[in-house]
Write a structure and sequence with these properties.
Elements lengths: L2 H11 L4 E4 L7 E4 L7 H41 L3 H4 L4 H28 L2 H19 L5 H15 L2 H10 L4 H29 L10 H23 L12 H13 L12 H8 L2 H29 L5 H7 L1 H21 L2 H21 L3 H28 L4 H17 L1 H4 L12 H34 L12 H5 L13
Antiparallel strand pairs: 1-2
Helix pairs in contact: 1-10, 2-7, 2-8, 2-9, 2-12, 4-6, 4-17, 5-6, 5-9, 8-13, 8-14, 8-16, 11-17, 12-13, 12-16, 12-17, 12-19, 14-16, 15-16, 15-19
Protein backbone atom coordinates (compact mmCIF):
# COMPACT_ATOMS: atom_id res chain seq x y z
CA UNK A 1 0.00 0.00 0.00
CA UNK A 2 1.41 3.42 -0.99
CA UNK A 3 1.90 6.30 1.41
CA UNK A 4 -1.03 8.11 -0.18
CA UNK A 5 -3.30 5.11 0.23
CA UNK A 6 -2.21 4.71 3.87
CA UNK A 7 -2.98 8.36 4.46
CA UNK A 8 -6.43 7.94 2.98
CA UNK A 9 -7.13 4.85 5.09
CA UNK A 10 -5.96 6.67 8.19
CA UNK A 11 -8.20 9.61 7.46
CA UNK A 12 -11.23 7.42 6.90
CA UNK A 13 -10.88 5.34 10.06
CA UNK A 14 -9.04 7.81 12.32
CA UNK A 15 -6.96 5.15 13.98
CA UNK A 16 -5.86 7.61 16.64
CA UNK A 17 -9.55 7.93 17.60
CA UNK A 18 -9.39 11.73 17.39
CA UNK A 19 -10.44 14.24 14.82
CA UNK A 20 -9.23 17.81 14.40
CA UNK A 21 -12.08 20.30 14.53
CA UNK A 22 -11.21 23.43 12.61
CA UNK A 23 -13.42 25.98 10.98
CA UNK A 24 -12.16 29.10 9.22
CA UNK A 25 -10.72 31.52 11.71
CA UNK A 26 -10.81 29.14 14.71
CA UNK A 27 -8.16 27.33 16.66
CA UNK A 28 -7.39 23.63 16.49
CA UNK A 29 -9.25 21.45 18.98
CA UNK A 30 -8.76 17.68 19.31
CA UNK A 31 -11.93 15.84 20.26
CA UNK A 32 -12.60 12.10 20.41
CA UNK A 33 -14.06 10.41 17.36
CA UNK A 34 -17.57 9.35 18.45
CA UNK A 35 -17.61 6.47 15.96
CA UNK A 36 -14.23 4.94 16.85
CA UNK A 37 -14.41 1.15 16.69
CA UNK A 38 -17.64 1.04 14.68
CA UNK A 39 -17.91 -0.90 11.42
CA UNK A 40 -18.13 0.82 8.05
CA UNK A 41 -21.86 -0.01 7.92
CA UNK A 42 -22.49 1.56 11.31
CA UNK A 43 -20.49 4.65 10.34
CA UNK A 44 -22.51 4.92 7.13
CA UNK A 45 -25.77 4.78 9.11
CA UNK A 46 -24.59 7.61 11.37
CA UNK A 47 -23.48 9.62 8.33
CA UNK A 48 -26.87 9.19 6.65
CA UNK A 49 -28.66 10.49 9.73
CA UNK A 50 -26.20 13.38 9.98
CA UNK A 51 -26.63 14.34 6.31
CA UNK A 52 -30.40 14.44 6.69
CA UNK A 53 -30.04 16.71 9.72
CA UNK A 54 -27.65 19.03 7.85
CA UNK A 55 -29.86 19.18 4.79
CA UNK A 56 -32.93 20.15 6.80
CA UNK A 57 -31.12 22.81 8.81
CA UNK A 58 -28.97 24.39 6.09
CA UNK A 59 -30.39 24.01 2.59
CA UNK A 60 -34.05 25.19 2.78
CA UNK A 61 -33.38 28.51 4.52
CA UNK A 62 -30.24 29.35 2.50
CA UNK A 63 -32.13 28.58 -0.71
CA UNK A 64 -34.95 30.83 0.46
CA UNK A 65 -32.44 33.63 1.04
CA UNK A 66 -31.05 33.28 -2.47
CA UNK A 67 -34.58 33.28 -3.87
CA UNK A 68 -35.10 36.66 -2.20
CA UNK A 69 -31.71 37.90 -3.38
CA UNK A 70 -32.36 37.02 -7.02
CA UNK A 71 -35.91 38.33 -6.80
CA UNK A 72 -34.69 41.69 -5.51
CA UNK A 73 -32.02 42.13 -8.18
CA UNK A 74 -34.24 41.18 -11.14
CA UNK A 75 -37.66 42.57 -10.18
CA UNK A 76 -36.72 45.76 -11.98
CA UNK A 77 -37.63 43.87 -15.17
CA UNK A 78 -41.16 43.35 -13.83
CA UNK A 79 -41.32 46.99 -12.73
CA UNK A 80 -40.29 48.18 -16.19
CA UNK A 81 -43.27 46.69 -17.97
CA UNK A 82 -45.52 48.22 -15.29
CA UNK A 83 -44.43 51.77 -16.09
CA UNK A 84 -41.13 52.44 -14.25
CA UNK A 85 -39.29 53.73 -17.33
CA UNK A 86 -42.06 56.10 -18.38
CA UNK A 87 -42.75 57.46 -14.87
CA UNK A 88 -39.07 58.24 -14.21
CA UNK A 89 -38.63 59.60 -17.75
CA UNK A 90 -35.72 57.24 -18.47
CA UNK A 91 -34.23 56.86 -21.92
CA UNK A 92 -33.44 53.33 -23.05
CA UNK A 93 -29.77 53.98 -22.38
CA UNK A 94 -30.48 55.23 -18.86
CA UNK A 95 -32.62 52.22 -18.04
CA UNK A 96 -29.86 49.86 -19.20
CA UNK A 97 -27.34 51.86 -17.14
CA UNK A 98 -29.37 51.17 -13.99
CA UNK A 99 -29.07 47.46 -14.77
CA UNK A 100 -25.33 47.65 -15.47
CA UNK A 101 -24.37 49.58 -12.33
CA UNK A 102 -25.59 46.72 -10.14
CA UNK A 103 -23.16 44.25 -11.69
CA UNK A 104 -20.21 46.62 -11.36
CA UNK A 105 -20.55 47.05 -7.59
CA UNK A 106 -21.63 43.42 -7.17
CA UNK A 107 -18.46 42.12 -8.83
CA UNK A 108 -16.09 44.63 -7.20
CA UNK A 109 -17.21 43.87 -3.64
CA UNK A 110 -17.44 40.06 -3.88
CA UNK A 111 -13.82 39.38 -2.80
CA UNK A 112 -14.10 41.76 0.17
CA UNK A 113 -17.37 40.30 1.41
CA UNK A 114 -15.98 36.76 1.32
CA UNK A 115 -13.16 37.90 3.60
CA UNK A 116 -15.73 39.45 5.95
CA UNK A 117 -17.69 36.19 6.04
CA UNK A 118 -14.56 34.40 7.23
CA UNK A 119 -13.84 37.08 9.83
CA UNK A 120 -17.41 37.32 11.13
CA UNK A 121 -19.86 34.58 12.03
CA UNK A 122 -22.27 33.59 9.21
CA UNK A 123 -25.18 34.14 11.61
CA UNK A 124 -24.13 37.81 11.88
CA UNK A 125 -22.77 38.59 8.42
CA UNK A 126 -25.60 37.17 6.29
CA UNK A 127 -28.49 38.75 8.26
CA UNK A 128 -26.61 42.09 8.28
CA UNK A 129 -26.21 42.29 4.51
CA UNK A 130 -29.85 41.22 4.05
CA UNK A 131 -31.12 44.07 6.19
CA UNK A 132 -28.92 46.49 4.23
CA UNK A 133 -30.15 45.36 0.84
CA UNK A 134 -33.74 45.29 2.09
CA UNK A 135 -33.42 48.97 3.05
CA UNK A 136 -31.92 49.70 -0.36
CA UNK A 137 -34.69 47.83 -2.14
CA UNK A 138 -37.36 49.74 -0.25
CA UNK A 139 -35.72 53.02 -1.20
CA UNK A 140 -35.97 52.07 -4.88
CA UNK A 141 -39.72 52.50 -4.56
CA UNK A 142 -39.23 56.06 -3.36
CA UNK A 143 -36.95 57.39 -6.12
CA UNK A 144 -38.13 60.08 -8.52
CA UNK A 145 -35.40 60.24 -11.15
CA UNK A 146 -32.51 58.52 -12.90
CA UNK A 147 -29.81 59.49 -10.39
CA UNK A 148 -31.83 58.16 -7.45
CA UNK A 149 -32.41 54.82 -9.17
CA UNK A 150 -28.72 54.58 -10.11
CA UNK A 151 -27.62 55.18 -6.51
CA UNK A 152 -30.05 52.57 -5.19
CA UNK A 153 -28.95 49.96 -7.74
CA UNK A 154 -25.26 50.57 -6.90
CA UNK A 155 -25.80 49.98 -3.18
CA UNK A 156 -28.01 46.98 -3.88
CA UNK A 157 -25.04 45.39 -5.66
CA UNK A 158 -22.75 46.18 -2.72
CA UNK A 159 -25.14 44.66 -0.18
CA UNK A 160 -25.99 41.53 -2.17
CA UNK A 161 -22.38 40.75 -3.14
CA UNK A 162 -21.70 38.56 -0.12
CA UNK A 163 -24.52 36.04 -0.39
CA UNK A 164 -23.88 33.81 -3.42
CA UNK A 165 -20.10 33.26 -3.14
CA UNK A 166 -20.35 33.25 0.64
CA UNK A 167 -22.98 30.52 0.83
CA UNK A 168 -21.11 28.35 -1.68
CA UNK A 169 -17.97 28.62 0.44
CA UNK A 170 -19.98 28.04 3.62
CA UNK A 171 -21.59 24.86 2.27
CA UNK A 172 -18.19 23.51 1.21
CA UNK A 173 -17.29 23.54 4.91
CA UNK A 174 -20.09 21.05 5.60
CA UNK A 175 -20.32 18.60 2.68
CA UNK A 176 -18.06 16.18 0.81
CA UNK A 177 -17.35 16.89 -2.86
CA UNK A 178 -19.56 14.06 -4.07
CA UNK A 179 -22.45 15.52 -2.08
CA UNK A 180 -21.97 19.18 -3.01
CA UNK A 181 -23.39 19.22 -6.54
CA UNK A 182 -26.99 18.41 -5.72
CA UNK A 183 -26.99 20.85 -2.80
CA UNK A 184 -25.49 23.62 -4.93
CA UNK A 185 -28.16 22.86 -7.54
CA UNK A 186 -30.98 23.05 -4.99
CA UNK A 187 -29.54 26.30 -3.64
CA UNK A 188 -29.21 27.84 -7.09
CA UNK A 189 -32.60 26.57 -8.26
CA UNK A 190 -33.96 29.29 -6.02
CA UNK A 191 -32.89 31.71 -8.76
CA UNK A 192 -35.24 29.98 -11.19
CA UNK A 193 -37.98 29.89 -8.58
CA UNK A 194 -37.39 33.60 -7.97
CA UNK A 195 -38.20 34.27 -11.60
CA UNK A 196 -41.32 32.15 -11.34
CA UNK A 197 -42.43 33.54 -7.99
CA UNK A 198 -41.38 37.05 -8.99
CA UNK A 199 -43.74 37.10 -11.94
CA UNK A 200 -46.69 36.04 -9.78
CA UNK A 201 -45.79 38.44 -6.98
CA UNK A 202 -45.25 41.40 -9.31
CA UNK A 203 -48.58 40.75 -11.02
CA UNK A 204 -50.34 40.80 -7.64
CA UNK A 205 -48.53 43.81 -6.16
CA UNK A 206 -49.02 45.87 -9.33
CA UNK A 207 -52.74 45.83 -8.55
CA UNK A 208 -51.95 48.29 -5.73
CA UNK A 209 -51.41 50.98 -8.35
CA UNK A 210 -52.48 54.37 -6.94
CA UNK A 211 -52.60 53.37 -3.27
CA UNK A 212 -50.80 55.98 -1.18
CA UNK A 213 -50.10 57.97 -4.32
CA UNK A 214 -47.62 55.33 -5.47
CA UNK A 215 -47.57 53.50 -8.77
CA UNK A 216 -47.73 49.70 -8.89
CA UNK A 217 -44.03 49.36 -9.82
CA UNK A 218 -43.06 51.39 -6.72
CA UNK A 219 -45.05 49.05 -4.48
CA UNK A 220 -43.17 46.09 -5.98
CA UNK A 221 -39.91 47.54 -4.63
CA UNK A 222 -41.33 48.77 -1.32
CA UNK A 223 -43.14 45.59 -0.25
CA UNK A 224 -40.41 43.23 -1.40
CA UNK A 225 -37.81 45.39 0.34
CA UNK A 226 -39.72 45.38 3.63
CA UNK A 227 -40.11 41.59 3.37
CA UNK A 228 -36.33 41.26 2.88
CA UNK A 229 -35.67 43.31 6.04
CA UNK A 230 -37.95 41.05 8.08
CA UNK A 231 -36.37 37.88 6.68
CA UNK A 232 -32.91 39.31 7.39
CA UNK A 233 -33.80 39.87 11.05
CA UNK A 234 -35.21 36.34 11.39
CA UNK A 235 -32.07 34.96 9.72
CA UNK A 236 -30.02 35.77 12.81
CA UNK A 237 -31.66 32.72 14.39
CA UNK A 238 -31.98 30.65 11.19
CA UNK A 239 -28.44 30.89 9.77
CA UNK A 240 -25.99 28.63 11.60
CA UNK A 241 -22.28 29.07 12.12
CA UNK A 242 -19.41 26.80 11.07
CA UNK A 243 -19.39 23.12 12.14
CA UNK A 244 -17.26 23.55 15.27
CA UNK A 245 -19.74 25.97 16.85
CA UNK A 246 -23.12 25.17 15.25
CA UNK A 247 -25.57 24.97 18.12
CA UNK A 248 -28.03 22.65 16.34
CA UNK A 249 -25.45 19.83 16.38
CA UNK A 250 -24.39 17.69 19.29
CA UNK A 251 -20.70 17.47 20.15
CA UNK A 252 -20.58 14.03 18.50
CA UNK A 253 -22.20 15.30 15.31
CA UNK A 254 -19.74 18.17 15.09
CA UNK A 255 -16.91 15.66 15.27
CA UNK A 256 -18.56 13.56 12.55
CA UNK A 257 -18.76 16.54 10.18
CA UNK A 258 -15.02 17.18 10.55
CA UNK A 259 -14.19 13.49 10.22
CA UNK A 260 -16.10 13.26 6.95
CA UNK A 261 -14.30 16.29 5.52
CA UNK A 262 -10.90 14.85 6.49
CA UNK A 263 -11.80 11.54 4.86
CA UNK A 264 -12.67 13.50 1.71
CA UNK A 265 -9.22 15.17 1.82
CA UNK A 266 -10.82 18.58 2.12
CA UNK A 267 -8.67 21.46 3.27
CA UNK A 268 -11.60 22.98 5.13
CA UNK A 269 -10.88 20.29 7.73
CA UNK A 270 -7.25 21.38 8.07
CA UNK A 271 -5.67 24.58 9.34
CA UNK A 272 -4.33 26.58 6.43
CA UNK A 273 -3.03 30.12 6.77
CA UNK A 274 -3.38 32.38 3.79
CA UNK A 275 -0.28 32.82 1.65
CA UNK A 276 0.09 34.72 -1.62
CA UNK A 277 1.35 31.48 -3.17
CA UNK A 278 -2.25 30.21 -3.11
CA UNK A 279 -3.36 33.26 -5.07
CA UNK A 280 -0.66 32.83 -7.70
CA UNK A 281 -1.31 29.08 -7.90
CA UNK A 282 -4.87 29.88 -8.93
CA UNK A 283 -3.87 32.61 -11.37
CA UNK A 284 -1.36 30.32 -13.10
CA UNK A 285 -3.72 27.35 -13.23
CA UNK A 286 -5.24 26.87 -16.69
CA UNK A 287 -8.38 25.43 -15.10
CA UNK A 288 -9.20 28.79 -13.51
CA UNK A 289 -9.51 30.45 -16.90
CA UNK A 290 -11.28 27.53 -18.55
CA UNK A 291 -14.00 27.53 -15.90
CA UNK A 292 -14.20 31.33 -16.06
CA UNK A 293 -14.94 31.07 -19.79
CA UNK A 294 -17.63 28.43 -19.21
CA UNK A 295 -19.23 30.42 -16.40
CA UNK A 296 -19.14 33.51 -18.59
CA UNK A 297 -21.24 31.62 -21.14
CA UNK A 298 -24.00 30.62 -18.74
CA UNK A 299 -23.95 33.65 -16.40
CA UNK A 300 -24.02 36.23 -19.20
CA UNK A 301 -26.99 34.41 -20.70
CA UNK A 302 -28.61 34.06 -17.27
CA UNK A 303 -28.72 37.77 -16.52
CA UNK A 304 -29.89 38.72 -20.00
CA UNK A 305 -32.69 36.19 -19.72
CA UNK A 306 -33.80 37.01 -16.17
CA UNK A 307 -33.74 40.79 -16.64
CA UNK A 308 -35.58 40.86 -19.93
CA UNK A 309 -37.92 37.84 -19.98
CA UNK A 310 -41.00 39.91 -18.98
CA UNK A 311 -40.13 42.45 -21.68
CA UNK A 312 -39.64 39.71 -24.28
CA UNK A 313 -43.00 38.14 -23.45
CA UNK A 314 -44.72 41.55 -23.41
CA UNK A 315 -43.55 42.09 -26.99
CA UNK A 316 -45.43 38.94 -28.01
CA UNK A 317 -48.60 40.97 -27.60
CA UNK A 318 -49.51 40.44 -23.93
CA UNK A 319 -50.33 43.11 -21.36
CA UNK A 320 -48.06 43.70 -18.36
CA UNK A 321 -49.91 41.48 -15.86
CA UNK A 322 -50.29 38.64 -18.36
CA UNK A 323 -46.63 38.95 -19.36
CA UNK A 324 -45.56 38.65 -15.72
CA UNK A 325 -47.76 35.57 -15.29
CA UNK A 326 -46.46 33.94 -18.48
CA UNK A 327 -42.89 34.31 -17.20
CA UNK A 328 -43.66 31.81 -14.43
CA UNK A 329 -43.70 28.43 -16.28
CA UNK A 330 -40.22 28.71 -17.93
CA UNK A 331 -38.63 29.41 -14.56
CA UNK A 332 -40.49 26.57 -12.85
CA UNK A 333 -39.31 24.11 -15.48
CA UNK A 334 -35.74 25.39 -15.13
CA UNK A 335 -35.81 24.86 -11.35
CA UNK A 336 -36.81 21.22 -11.76
CA UNK A 337 -34.12 20.52 -14.38
CA UNK A 338 -31.45 22.30 -12.29
CA UNK A 339 -32.03 19.94 -9.38
CA UNK A 340 -32.15 16.89 -11.64
CA UNK A 341 -28.85 17.79 -13.32
CA UNK A 342 -27.25 18.35 -9.91
CA UNK A 343 -28.32 14.86 -8.85
CA UNK A 344 -27.26 13.29 -12.15
CA UNK A 345 -23.83 14.95 -12.13
CA UNK A 346 -23.18 13.77 -8.56
CA UNK A 347 -24.14 10.21 -9.48
CA UNK A 348 -22.24 9.98 -12.76
CA UNK A 349 -19.33 12.36 -11.97
CA UNK A 350 -19.75 13.59 -15.56
CA UNK A 351 -20.28 17.30 -14.98
CA UNK A 352 -18.81 18.24 -18.34
CA UNK A 353 -21.19 16.02 -20.30
CA UNK A 354 -24.12 17.43 -18.29
CA UNK A 355 -23.06 20.97 -19.25
CA UNK A 356 -22.67 20.01 -22.90
CA UNK A 357 -26.03 18.25 -23.15
CA UNK A 358 -27.98 20.98 -21.35
CA UNK A 359 -26.36 23.77 -23.40
CA UNK A 360 -27.97 22.39 -26.57
CA UNK A 361 -31.40 23.10 -25.07
CA UNK A 362 -30.51 26.77 -24.59
CA UNK A 363 -28.96 27.03 -28.04
CA UNK A 364 -32.14 25.61 -29.57
CA UNK A 365 -34.30 28.00 -27.52
CA UNK A 366 -32.50 31.18 -28.53
CA UNK A 367 -32.32 29.99 -32.12
CA UNK A 368 -36.12 29.82 -32.04
CA UNK A 369 -36.33 33.33 -30.56
CA UNK A 370 -33.94 34.61 -33.20
CA UNK A 371 -35.43 32.84 -36.20
CA UNK A 372 -39.20 32.99 -35.73
CA UNK A 373 -41.72 35.80 -35.37
CA UNK A 374 -44.56 33.51 -34.26
CA UNK A 375 -45.54 34.12 -30.59
CA UNK A 376 -46.04 30.42 -29.87
CA UNK A 377 -42.62 29.48 -31.20
CA UNK A 378 -40.95 32.34 -29.36
CA UNK A 379 -42.65 31.45 -26.07
CA UNK A 380 -41.49 27.84 -26.49
CA UNK A 381 -38.03 29.26 -27.09
CA UNK A 382 -38.08 30.97 -23.69
CA UNK A 383 -38.75 27.56 -22.10
CA UNK A 384 -35.76 25.97 -23.79
CA UNK A 385 -33.66 29.03 -23.05
CA UNK A 386 -34.33 28.74 -19.32
CA UNK A 387 -33.73 24.97 -19.39
CA UNK A 388 -30.39 25.49 -21.13
CA UNK A 389 -29.08 28.21 -18.81
CA UNK A 390 -30.00 27.59 -15.17
CA UNK A 391 -28.70 24.02 -14.66
CA UNK A 392 -25.29 24.96 -16.10
CA UNK A 393 -24.65 27.72 -13.54
CA UNK A 394 -24.77 25.46 -10.48
CA UNK A 395 -23.12 22.59 -12.33
CA UNK A 396 -20.19 24.74 -13.47
CA UNK A 397 -19.54 25.99 -9.93
CA UNK A 398 -19.57 22.41 -8.64
CA UNK A 399 -17.33 21.28 -11.53
CA UNK A 400 -14.76 23.98 -10.77
CA UNK A 401 -14.88 23.28 -7.02
CA UNK A 402 -14.37 19.54 -7.55
CA UNK A 403 -11.19 20.11 -9.55
CA UNK A 404 -9.38 22.61 -7.30
CA UNK A 405 -7.81 21.43 -4.03
CA UNK A 406 -6.84 23.72 -1.17
CA UNK A 407 -9.42 25.92 0.53
CA UNK A 408 -7.69 29.22 -0.30
CA UNK A 409 -6.81 28.24 -3.85
CA UNK A 410 -10.38 27.05 -4.34
CA UNK A 411 -11.70 30.27 -2.86
CA UNK A 412 -9.55 32.40 -5.17
CA UNK A 413 -10.50 30.30 -8.19
CA UNK A 414 -14.21 30.50 -7.46
CA UNK A 415 -13.80 34.23 -6.88
CA UNK A 416 -12.30 34.66 -10.34
CA UNK A 417 -14.90 32.41 -11.97
CA UNK A 418 -17.96 33.94 -10.28
CA UNK A 419 -16.64 37.50 -10.46
CA UNK A 420 -15.90 37.28 -14.17
CA UNK A 421 -19.30 35.77 -14.83
CA UNK A 422 -21.04 38.57 -12.93
CA UNK A 423 -19.09 41.25 -14.78
CA UNK A 424 -20.68 39.94 -17.94
CA UNK A 425 -23.95 41.15 -16.48
CA UNK A 426 -22.83 44.57 -17.70
CA UNK A 427 -22.95 43.21 -21.25
CA UNK A 428 -26.26 41.45 -20.61
CA UNK A 429 -27.82 44.68 -19.36
CA UNK A 430 -27.20 46.49 -22.63
CA UNK A 431 -28.05 44.03 -25.39
CA UNK A 432 -31.87 44.22 -25.23
CA UNK A 433 -32.35 47.78 -26.46
CA UNK A 434 -35.67 49.56 -26.79
CA UNK A 435 -35.05 50.39 -30.45
CA UNK A 436 -34.73 46.67 -31.27
CA UNK A 437 -38.24 45.68 -30.24
CA UNK A 438 -40.30 43.70 -30.94
CA UNK A 439 -37.83 41.07 -32.19
CA UNK A 440 -34.74 42.04 -30.15
CA UNK A 441 -32.51 40.40 -32.73
CA UNK A 442 -29.16 41.75 -31.41
CA UNK A 443 -29.96 40.63 -27.86
CA UNK A 444 -30.94 37.09 -28.85
CA UNK A 445 -27.90 36.86 -31.14
CA UNK A 446 -25.46 37.87 -28.39
CA UNK A 447 -26.94 35.36 -25.91
CA UNK A 448 -26.79 32.64 -28.58
CA UNK A 449 -23.14 33.47 -29.27
CA UNK A 450 -22.35 33.31 -25.53
CA UNK A 451 -23.91 29.86 -25.27
CA UNK A 452 -22.22 28.43 -28.37
CA UNK A 453 -18.74 29.91 -27.94
CA UNK A 454 -18.29 30.03 -24.18
CA UNK A 455 -20.72 27.57 -22.57
CA UNK A 456 -20.68 24.77 -25.14
CA UNK A 457 -17.23 25.44 -26.61
CA UNK A 458 -15.66 26.02 -23.19
CA UNK A 459 -17.21 22.86 -21.73
CA UNK A 460 -16.00 20.74 -24.65
CA UNK A 461 -12.45 22.12 -24.46
CA UNK A 462 -12.23 21.85 -20.67
CA UNK A 463 -13.49 18.28 -20.56
CA UNK A 464 -10.99 17.29 -23.27
CA UNK A 465 -8.10 18.89 -21.37
CA UNK A 466 -9.12 17.32 -18.05
CA UNK A 467 -9.42 13.90 -19.66
CA UNK A 468 -6.02 14.33 -21.34
CA UNK A 469 -4.42 15.20 -17.99
CA UNK A 470 -6.10 12.23 -16.24
CA UNK A 471 -4.64 9.86 -18.84
CA UNK A 472 -1.17 11.28 -18.26
CA UNK A 473 -1.51 10.72 -14.52
CA UNK A 474 -2.84 7.20 -15.04
CA UNK A 475 0.26 6.42 -17.15
CA UNK A 476 2.53 7.70 -14.40
CA UNK A 477 3.75 10.72 -16.35
CA UNK A 478 3.17 13.00 -13.35
CA UNK A 479 4.72 10.77 -10.68
CA UNK A 480 7.89 12.86 -10.67
CA UNK A 481 5.92 15.70 -9.04
CA UNK A 482 5.86 13.66 -5.79
CA UNK A 483 9.40 12.30 -5.92
CA UNK A 484 11.47 13.08 -2.83
CA UNK A 485 8.45 14.38 -0.88
CA UNK A 486 7.00 12.94 2.30
CA UNK A 487 3.27 12.27 2.76
CA UNK A 488 2.47 15.75 4.11
CA UNK A 489 4.35 17.44 1.26
CA UNK A 490 2.52 15.31 -1.29
CA UNK A 491 -0.85 16.26 0.24
CA UNK A 492 0.21 19.91 0.06
CA UNK A 493 0.42 19.59 -3.72
CA UNK A 494 -3.40 19.69 -3.76
CA UNK A 495 -4.79 19.04 -7.24
CA UNK A 496 -1.22 18.60 -8.53
CA UNK A 497 -0.88 15.34 -6.62
CA UNK A 498 -0.13 12.57 -9.13
CA UNK A 499 -3.05 10.49 -7.82
CA UNK A 500 -5.55 13.36 -7.93
CA UNK A 501 -7.89 12.51 -10.81
CA UNK A 502 -10.01 15.30 -12.22
CA UNK A 503 -13.80 15.19 -12.36
CA UNK A 504 -14.84 15.18 -16.00
Amino acid sequence: MSALEKGKDSAEHLSDEKTTAIAPGTATVDIPDPDAGLSDEERAAHDKTLLWKLDLKLIPWLSFLYLISFLDRTNIGNAKIDGLQEDLHLTNGQYNATLSIFFVSYSLFEPLTNVLLKKLRPSVFIPAIMVLWGITMTSMGLVHNFSGLMAARWWLGVAEAGLFPGVNYYLSCWYKRSEFGIRAAIFFSAAALAGSFGGLLAAAIAQMDGIGGKRGWAWIFILEGLATILVGIVSYWMVHDFPDSATFLTVDDRARVIRRLKADKQSSAEHESFQMSYFWASVKDWKTWCFAIIYMGCDGALYAFSLFLPTIIAQLGYKSTTANLLSVPPYAAAAVLTIFIGWLADRTRQRGLCNIGVSFLGIAGFSMLLGSDKPGVQYAGTFLGALGIYPCVANTISWASNNVEGVYKRGVTLGFVIGWGNLNGVVSSNIYRGQDKPRYTPGHAVVLAYMILFLLGGSLATRFLLSWENKKRARGERDHWAEGKDEKEVEALGDKRPDFMYTL
